[in-house]
Records
---
Amino acid sequence: MFRYASLLSLALASTAFAQYSATYDPHNLPPTSEDGQSGTNQCGEGSDQNSMCQNAYLNSVDDFCLWGPPTPGPDSTIGNTERIEVAWCTRAGYGTRLIPDGTLLGVHFVQTSDYVQVTGVGDLTKINIPAGDEGGELDPHGADGNGNPIGGLVFSNAFGGELKQVHEWTNFVSSTEFCFRACDDNGSQPATYCQHIYDVMGCWWNMPGNYDAGFDRCLADSGEPMGVYGTSTFYQGQPTTPDPHPAPASSSCESVNSISNGQHAARAAIPVADPVITGISTAGTAGVGSVHKARAPAESSSPSRTESSGTTATSAPTGSNGAAPLRSGRMEAVVAGAAVALAAAILA
């Protein structure tokens, strides 16, 4: 998926910090929670497309947020803006920006005993991510312990029904794809299930699941944490990158027709050419030249859930970091097909 050659220096600078432990009442938040914060945690209610709110929520298939740049433009890549991202949400009421209708073409929400997770595809240029940006990873640690974005807080009501802060979370987002996992503080190994050290590996490796068009919610097994293989743990930068885990078995899946909040995109997307990376040494990068699966096989136990079939492993390009390319021909077809279907539905 994400190749992140352009973010290699950020990946090498990332280090593992102790679990973030400051706890905030979601109904009584301070103006800011970290020094150097560009936005605010005191966001009010409603919604505002110019909001600088840095609170994200991960509650359900139609009630979640993604981190995205505060301003559009070719320089607003995730790598350039990771410290200042703001929350873009599917639902009003948090004082955040709204993800415009038509942005999300696939959303798949799963709840396990240890975490909740949302994966999907869409036209994320509508939340200011430049076209062609292969994205990056956001988490509550960052290279200095202040988080990416600085002061970004995440809350969920998925663990017991009461809205509360989640201390361990990880979000990958690009111009076409996203994944967001929030781990239950009282679950099994929240810091391990929401590990943040694999920031060049992308969504499919860190959070195997459904990245097809369409909308659904499921219960699921927790599976193995990213990077953990029995009694062994893989560390980014080792010579050989292991395959991603298969998507954990899911059940009790329910389809959702669409996700809409009435918000239209404020401006047309600003296209930029795909980045051409030159002069980057591959010495010491994770999984150089290794064979890496673009998508782990799903292990769904639900007859109501349709999983893709016939997906084959792809080799990482020589000199890459071993993560599968973001925009395979199949992914482009999924996004394009979903966009056509959405346009047809609007015109009908």
---
Amino acid sequence: MGKHCQLVMGPAGSGKSTYCRVMQDHADQLGRTVHVINMDPACEQFSYRASGDVRELITVDEVVDEQLLGPNGGLIFAFEYLLENSVWLDDQVGDYAEDFVILDMPGQIELFTHLPILPRIVALLQNQGYIVAGVYLMDSSVVLADVNKYVASTLSCLSAMLLMEIPHVNILSKMDLTKKIAPVHQLAEYLNCDWERLLADPHRKAEIPERLHSLTASIGNLLDQFPLVSYQPLDVTSLSSVSSCMALIDRVLQFEDDEEGRERKDPEDTAS
């Protein structure tokens, strides 16, 4: 069976740690083993069972105190230190040949939109034999409330996809907070990034300052020319929503194909 890893990204407050916990809990119910590794050296707490924690190697507080850097500079320094000591990451992910690994990343978007740090981490994982997929979370209660934030968020998703060059799933998280205001069946243009329909709506267009109409239309045209971004809604209170999200990521990672291949092989191994 292959080795599979999710790199969970997204801005601070987008629900990354909650996503990791929910996926781990759902996997438990399915009899699957999911190992979650905290990759945020500034993290204070999380609710999942951590199989590894980068704070055992370095913390942002240590960097800030010793290097006299700010929080963002301290985070970048910490990741550069991690890459210089990549044997730590090799040790953390090296023993999970038949399990699923999730890396819970920090929320500073410069890490996954334009700095070359995460692509180097992806390369380390691939050298270990992992098939890696990016999972990018956006808070639906923020981006659905303001079309300007939706445009900016979608650009950040596209930037991360182009930088990482790995299979990618974008998720609108916290749908349990927005489903009464905006039911999923009314969100097709948001989920599919249908810019023509979005910008044709007079109520949404009114949210955009007049001086930015031309710029927003140009951004919409750009995203139409690179139709890579779409979103999967996630309501962590809904079993069907969690199941759909996990199934999508399994398909992206070809997890089911590897699982079926292993099941076909097992009887022969037993017979021999």
---
Amino acid sequence: MSLIAGSYERFIWGFRLKPLTHDPSSQTLTLTQLFSYPSHTAPITTVAAAGPVAASGSSDDTIHIYELSSAASLGPLHHFSSSITSLIFYSPPNLSFPRNLLSATADGSISIFDTEPFVLLKSFRSHKKGINDLAVHPSGKLALSVSRDGCLAMSNLMRGKRSFCCRLGKEATIVKFDGSGDRFFMVSEEKIGVHLAEDARLLFELENEKRVLCAAPGESGILFTGGESRSITAWDTNSGKVAYCIEDAHSTRVKGIVVLTKDGGVDDDPYLVASASSDGFIRVWDARMAIKGKPNPLAEANTKSRLTCLAGSSLKSSKRPQIGKSAPKEEQDSATKV
């Protein structure tokens, strides 16, 4: 399992989560540093990871690609004229290597990249103002985005164009699909809306005490959130109630949450959740232990940086990522491959 974090100080951090079988103490895992260096010329705003590859986006208008297995940087993607605000990989359920990388920018555009090798397939305008977050449906055929223009947009990734847009009552900062794609979640300040994906109907709202800055869907309808409360809250989105909470998980705001045990885990594996904070710490938790009270982290690393984002990958792949030349114009007429 690998974790990637970005920081305000322009540094990218890579860690591998390994078991400590020889350690009899309760902290049975360790975070081993893979790399750390200033990969961008401005603060890192977003990171994504899938299989053996990771990506980081920055307000320096570039995306950098990394190979996790060799802890190597493959270089930047230069296709942008504004800050990168969101990155997400699309990986079909039966593949261990991502098929596409999608990016969102501060000028309201969405770009779709092939990953074998990394080439730009399509770029289109989805919003009038900067995009706050981007989510891809598990089918890979559509994406949702929320923006500073106060709108929710749906984009057809097969055609590479926006297909629907509606104005929200309040600007949303986060949007996520659940694992099945039947529901999606939108965050606005301290409130989380649970919506049906079929017609965007609001089922109910979850209300935190303080502003939510990050969210990650888990198994069985659980949604993990973190933010200015410094805690990690697990919501049961079927009942609309708090399932459990890790109080004071960090000393300052939580900026990133990753659910690690998802694909390929065995029944007796701990249910691993990683969190990153602007206090510089990355911590890994067994979420099941939070039901019994505040757990101790299974592993932690102190980057001594103001962390801004976190991503993780649990899958292995024999493929090696590469950066290619720009796609021919006829290729850019299509988007994701299905």
